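Onboarding guide, step 5: your first structure request.
Type a short instruction followed by the sequence, for example:

Predict the 3D structure of this protein.
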Amino acid sequence: MAEIVTPTKARSNLYSLINETNRDAKPVIIAGATDEKSAVLISKREYDELQETLALVANGQLQEAIKRDDRDDKAVNLDDMIAEIDNE
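The system replies with structure tokens like these:
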């Protein structure tokens, strides 16, 4: 479960929150008065992984890989798929 902190606590403990987030790979919710005033702190690694997943979904390649895997039992190399996206 994500840790929830106030903006004041996040500001005063930012360095330790960054370390914890990177160490534990768990997000920290910085809860403002409303959702529009709130934020989520995640590690750079987690952010990059989310971006890669979104790119695969946006290009339809993730769904195609899942279909292909279901059809013929071949392993899908996601590194190759990401490299292919990067070269487009």
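Each response can be followed by summary notes, for example: The mean pLDDT is 86.
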